[in-house]
Amino acid sequence: MKIRVFIVCMMVMLVAVPASAQLDRIFKGLGIGQKGDLSDAKIGSGLKEALKIGTENAVGLTGKTDGYFLNEAIKILMPEKLRTLEKGLRVVGYGPQVDQFVLSMNRAAEQAARAAKQIFWNAIGEMTFEDVRKIWSGNETAATDYFKGKTTDRLTAAFRPVVDKAMNEVGVTRQYKELVGKYESIPFVKKETFDIDGYVVTKALDGLFHVVGEEERKIRTNPQARVTDLLKEVFKK
Questions:
Q1: Which residue has the higher pLDDT, 14 or 237?
Q2: Cα–Cα distances in Å, from 173 out to 44, 77, 196?
Q3: What distance in Å separates the CA atoms of residue 4 and residue 90, rounded to the nearest whole number?
Q4: Residue 15 belongs to what domain range?
Q5: ∠ CA 195-197-198, rounded to 5°
Q6: Same domain, yes or no, for 8 and 68?
Q7: What's the number of domains the chain is made of?
Q8: What is the pTM of this model?
C-alpha cells in the first residue's frame, strides 16, 4: 500500500511541475544531492579560497631555502640532454663543480617561487562560475590541472625574468658556461647547446604546480586541512 501511494505521489509531481524541478524535489525528498544545494557564489568563494590557501602554502614551501633542493619530488637535476656532459666532467674530476651547479639551479628556482603567489592569485580571480562548478566536482587535483592548462604560457612569460635574475644572482649561467667550456676542452667530445634558463623556468613551474596539487588534494581529502568555516562547508563529504 505504501509503495502504491509513493508511486502515485511521484506521478502527480511529474505532471504538476517542470522536469528539472521534478528531479530536484524527488531527490531532496529522498535525501539525495544535498551537496548540490550550495550556491554557485558559495562554491566559487570556497574554491577560490582553497586555491589561495593552497598556492600560498605551495609558495611558502618551495620559496624557502632547500624548498626545491631537498624535495626529491621537485628537485631540479642536470638536464637529460646534458647527462653525458655531467658524466664526462665527473670522470675528469669536476664532480664538485657539477654538484654546485645543480644546487645553484635549485636556489634560482627557490628565489623565483617567492614571486609566484600574486600571479596565481590574479589567475584565480579570473575564474568563472562555470569553471568553478566543473573544478569543484572534479578529481582531487582538478583545480590545479585546470589552472596549469589555462595559465602556463602566461606564468612562463612572467616567471622567466624572475628566474633569469635569480639565476644571475646565484651564478647559474656563469657556472653553466664554465662547465660547458671544461667539457668541450676534453678531446673528441661534441659541443652541446642548451637553453639552461628555459630549463630552470620549466622545472621551477613544474615543481610549483606539483606542490600546489598536493595542497589541493589535502584540502579536498583531509578535513584538518580545511582551516576556515567556508572550506569546511564547501568541501564537506
A1: 237
A2: 43, 15, 8
A3: 83
A4: 1-32
A5: 70
A6: no
A7: 2
A8: 0.72
